[in-house]
């Protein structure tokens, strides 16, 4: 009697075995599997009693979606394939996961594995389909028992990971039997590979009775809060703490965040939290601290201008007194070279007074005035920024209030739903069923409203975050400009002061020269010539 075999090409049907021939690699693989005792062990390893729906599950008979639907899906290799024998072939071993890039009619698909793309026969793989649950690897597959409350799972890439069913902590490393936390935790969202657009940290091939997937295994008729139906979301959900309507990571689970501008001590990295107002019992935001810094800088700039104004007054008064002093006719009758030096000294006072008048004038135009007029509208600009950020913070507070209100409403609806479910169990009637359906509908609506409020809150906080970063960087830039401006004008002050000293020195040079030229002998000669009374000296009287 001729043998018949079941096969699939577009559809499943029977065909005479004499009309078909297995590929050499497939035939050798089948013979090896038939001789291998591991087949029964593999089947026994995964009892059917613990194989409900899994996030990626293998069916006894593969199902092939249309070629258009295959792109982006995943499949598991059934037999080894040596792609080197084919042009642009993709090599793999049995049991590996391949991502389908495109599936063309004719039985050849293009796939990607470990960053390598190539073609392979579609008959060598089996499509992995999505359903709705998780699975736990059997403990028989483990070398030794796991510590209490730890379960082992398999990712779609075939890699084991471990979950603590008490706190949902996840790690790639096998936990030791001694108490403690595994070394490398997978709390971050992207710690595990993403498959088909969703995070697969909760995905595995088989399913066990444990709290890790308790929410997923709930019946669709049971009340579930939005956002808690996914074990991946629950597992990756880190505890948060909200302070003054701003949400931060919980200190207990806080990991070191990467600074936006490392090693720069930038404003945008260190002013997110609020702090107690030193002038009252309230709180002031980090942005208000930055604004106070800016306003204080503006005040310091104003006080510096006032200081320069006082310096100008001193210069003016000093110049006035020097000029007045130079005109006093004291010692004006001094004669000779000393008299000339004295006259030049008095004249130098007038010259010095002129130098100080010019110095005070330049101080006013080149130092004081720029300090006063720099950013005349600075306070108005700061007030505008303050109002803008304050409005965003008020919006954030309103959004958070709406979230809390929606959360309370959802809790009330769930309590009402639980009550209606209990009433339905005790009293089977169409009215009780209608009440239960109505309560479920309201609970679902409350959950949708909570999700909507959470989305709006997150959007508002994201906008507030972006504005804080942008504005704080702008304030940082303004502070740098202010400091640089003041530095330049103070340098101008010192330059003018040095110039004043140079001019004053130049007024002293003639005085120094005349003082060096003072000659008492010459002065005596001149004076004697002008004032002599006679050269004949008296003589003795003779008798």
Question: Which structural traits does this protein have?
Answer:
about 550 residues, alpha+beta, Substrate Binding Domain Of Dnak, Chain:A, Domain 2, five-stranded antiparallel beta sheet, three-stranded antiparallel beta sheet, 10 helices, 16 strands, about 10% strand, elongated
Which secondary structure elements does this structure contain, and how are they paired or packed?
Elements lengths: L3 E6 L1 E6 L7 H12 L2 H8 L21 H4 L3 E4 L19 E8 L3 E6 L2 E6 L3 E3 L22 E5 L5 E5 L5 E2 L22 E2 L2 E2 L31 H6 L3 E4 L2 E4 L17 H4 L4 E2 L6 E2 L1 H41 L9 H38 L4 H49 L3 H87 L3 H12 L12
Antiparallel strand pairs: 1-2, 3-4, 3-7, 4-5, 5-6, 8-9, 9-10, 11-12, 13-14, 15-16
Pfam families: FCH, SH3_2, WW, WW_FCH_linker
Protein name: Growth arrest-specific protein 7
InterPro entries: AH/BAR_dom_sf, F_BAR_dom, FCH_dom, GAS7_F-BAR, SH3-like_dom_sf, SH3_domain, WW_dom, WW_dom_sf
3D architecture notes:
The structure is a single chain. Helix 6 (286-326) packs parallel to helix 9 (430-516). The model is unreliable at 32-68, 130-142 and 179-236 (pLDDT under 50). With 543 residues, the chain is of the alpha+beta class. It has helices spanning 24-35, 38-45, 67-70, 231-236, 267-270, 286-326, 336-373, 378-426, 430-516, 520-531, and strands at residues 4-9, 11-16, 74-77, 97-104, 108-113, 116-121, 125-127, 150-154, 160-164, 170-171, 194-195, 198-199, 240-243, 246-249, 275-276, 283-284. It is built from 10 helices and 16 strands. Among the domains are: 44-59 and 72-80 and 96-103 and 120-212 and 225-237, no CATH class; 290-517, Substrate Binding Domain Of Dnak, Chain:A, Domain 2 (Up-down Bundle). Strand 9 (160-164) and strand 10 (170-171) form a beta hairpin.
């Amino acid at each position: 009697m001729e043998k018949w075999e079941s096969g699939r090409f577009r559809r499943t049907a029977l065909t005479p075995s004499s009309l078909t021939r297995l590929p050499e690699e497939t035939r050798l693989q089948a013979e090896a599997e038939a001789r291998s005792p591991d087949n029964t062990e593999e089947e026994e390893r995964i009892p059917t009693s613990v194989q409900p729906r899994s996030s990626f599950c293998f069916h006894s008979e593969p199902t092939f979606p249309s070629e258009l639907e295959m792109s982006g899906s995943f499949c598991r290799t059934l037999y080894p394939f040596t792609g080197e024998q084919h042009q642009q072939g993709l090599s793999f071993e049995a049991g590996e996961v391949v991502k389908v890039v495109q599936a063309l009619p004719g039985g050849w698909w293009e796939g990607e594995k470990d960053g390598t793309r190539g073609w392979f026969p579609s008959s060598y793989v089996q499509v992995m389909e999505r359903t709705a649950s998780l699975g736990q690897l059997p403990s028989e597959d483990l070398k030794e028992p796991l510590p209490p409350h730890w379960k082992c799972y398999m990712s779609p890439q075939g890699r084991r990971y471990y979950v603590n069913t008490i706190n949902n902590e996840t790690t790639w490393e096998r936990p030791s039997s001694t108490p403690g936390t595994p070394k490398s935790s997978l709390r971050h969202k992207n710690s595990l590979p993403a498959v088909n657009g969703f995070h697969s940290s909760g995905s595995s091939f088989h399913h066990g009775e444990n709290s890790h997937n308790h929410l997923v295994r709930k019946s669709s008729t049971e009340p579930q809060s939005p956002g808690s139906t996914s074990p991946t979301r629950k597992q990756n959900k880190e505890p948060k703490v909200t302070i003054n309507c701003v949400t931060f990571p919980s200190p207990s689970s806080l990991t070191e965040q990467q600074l936006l501008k490392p090693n720069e001590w930038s404003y945008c990295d260190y002013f997110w939290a609020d702090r107690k107002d030193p002038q009252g019992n309230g709180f002031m935001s980090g942005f208000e601290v930055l604004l106070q810094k800016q306003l204080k800088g503006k005040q310091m700039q104003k006080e510096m201008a006032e200081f320069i104004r006082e310096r100008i007054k001193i210069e003016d008064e000093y110049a006035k007194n020097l000029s007045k002093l130079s005109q006093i006719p004291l010692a004006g009758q001094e004669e000779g070279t000393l008299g000339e030096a004295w006259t030049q000294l008095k004249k130098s006072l007038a010259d010095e007074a002129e130098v100080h008048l010019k110095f005070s004038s330049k101080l006013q135009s080149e130092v004081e005035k720029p300090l006063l007029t720099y950013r005349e509208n600075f306070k108005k600009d700061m007030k505008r920024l303050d109002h803008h950020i304050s409005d965003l913070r008020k919006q954030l507070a309103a959004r958070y209030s709406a979230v809390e209100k929606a959360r309370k409403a959802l809790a009330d609806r769930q309590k009402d739903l639980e009550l209606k479910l209990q009433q339905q169990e005790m009293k089977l009637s169409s009215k009780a069923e209608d009440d239960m359906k109505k309560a479920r509908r309201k609970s679902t609506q409350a959950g949708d409203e909570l999700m909507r409020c959470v989305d709006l809150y997150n959007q508002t906080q994201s906008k507030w975050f972006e504005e804080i970063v942008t504005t704080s960087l702008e304030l940082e830039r303004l502070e740098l400009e202010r400091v640089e401006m003041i530095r330049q004008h103070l340098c101008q002050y010192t330059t003018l002061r040095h110039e004043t000293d140079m001019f004053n020195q130049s007024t002293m040079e003639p005085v120094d020269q005349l003082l060096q030229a003072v000659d008492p002998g010459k002065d005596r000669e001149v004076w004697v010539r002008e004032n002599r009374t006679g050269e004949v000296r008296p003589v003795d009287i003779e008798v």
